[in-house]
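Why should sequence recovery work at all? Because a backbone constrains its sequence more than one might expect. Tight turns favour small or flexible residues, buried strands favour hydrophobic ones, and helices have their own preferences. The token representation captures these environments compactly. In the example below, the structure is given first.
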């Protein structure tokens, strides 16, 4: 049996950690001590274990991670569009904190697909799981919540209430209302596609009800769900309510020719934009911050052993970047 680092430490009257760092040329140890340790190690016939040396080398290169984390979604990454920036941000922050992240696209309505994922996650020792923004609202997903630390990104999951990172739609909507108010709008309507509920439907509905109440109920129906392809019923609704402004829960690429003509003569704001150079006025989600905060939440929960459904969920919301031609003063709280 060869000489060990523990024996070298005993011979030199140094700590085991000091000897280990000196042999690894760690600059935290003085050059004189490193030389003394290496000289004695060579004279004593010390040879480093090749497996241990390779492992330490990989750690220094950040190719070994403290935990494996999974991200589960229902849309492949190559079809995420602008939200690919969210994936990049999440990966960068996770790697910085020493985690490895894998994306898993699952049919979340298929119990067999979920069971297969559970087996893989268990065999690979997955500690934490992110629920990525989903293509639709799920009232509940049949996952084994007690097995992992969970962080949901966005508003796609109605139950259970998990730690969450997402976009602050309420504040974005208030900023849009401030913008429209500056342009003299007093009868502001809210519209969204009926199948966009997962992203902006609920926040818009809440904002429309509150805004209408604050204005004394001037509109009979402040919110409209768009169901037709030509969006003709939206224009009928706008005439009945005599709207002079509109907040739309989608972007300018999804409007019909008739609606486009109406918007030319009326102030409006989109709560989404197809890209950062898209049509103004609109909002661009802060994907960079959302991804970072999701990982920060996960890191905090893993450190505190926060498995399963939290008793008190933590939520971090990020406001979006305004793409309008003029600035918007922050509304009073």
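From this structural description, the recovered sequence reads:
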């Amino acid at each position: 049996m060869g000489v060990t680092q523990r024996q070298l430490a005993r011979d030199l009257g140094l700590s085991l950690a000091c000897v280990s760092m000196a042999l690894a040329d760690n600059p935290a140890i003085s050059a004189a001590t490193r030389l003394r340790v290496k000289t004695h190690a060579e004279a004593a016939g010390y040879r480093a274990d090749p497996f241990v040396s390779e492992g330490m080398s990989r750690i220094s290169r950040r190719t070994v991670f403290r935990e494996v984390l999974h991200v589960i979604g229902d849309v492949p990454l190559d079809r995420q569009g602008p939200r690919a920036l969210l994936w990049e941000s999440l990966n960068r922050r996770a790697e910085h904190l020493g985690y490895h992240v894998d994306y898993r696209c699952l049919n979340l309505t298929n119990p067999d697909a979920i069971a297969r994922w559970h087996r893989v996650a268990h065999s690979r020792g997955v500690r934490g799981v992110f629920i990525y923004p989903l293509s639709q609202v799920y009232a509940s997903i049949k996952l084994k919540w007690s097995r992992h630390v969970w962080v949901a990104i966005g508003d796609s999951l109605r139950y259970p209430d998990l730690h969450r990172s997402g976009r602050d739609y309420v504040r974005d909507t208030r900023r849009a209302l401030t913008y429209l108010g500056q342009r003299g709008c007093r009868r502001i309507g809210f519209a969204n596609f009926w199948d966009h509920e997962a992203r902006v439907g609920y926040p818009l509905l809440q904002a429309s009800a509150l805004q209408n109440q604050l204005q004394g109920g001037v509109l009979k129906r402040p919110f409209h769900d768009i169901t037709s392809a030509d969006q003709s019923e939206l224009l009928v609704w706008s005439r009945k309510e005599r709207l002079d402004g509109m907040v739309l829960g989608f972007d300018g690429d999804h409007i019909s020719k008739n609606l486009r003509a109406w918007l030319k003569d009326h102030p409006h704001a989109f709560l989404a934009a197809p890209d950062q150079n898209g049509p103004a006025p609109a909002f661009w989600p802060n994907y960079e911050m959302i991804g970072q905060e999701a990982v920060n939440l996960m890191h905090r929960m893993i450190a505190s052993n926060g498995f399963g459904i939290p008793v008190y969920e933590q939520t971090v919301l990020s406001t979006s970047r305004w793409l309008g031609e003029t600035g918007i003063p922050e509304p009073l709280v």
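A few observations help interpret the result. The first strand starts at residue 67 and ends at 73.
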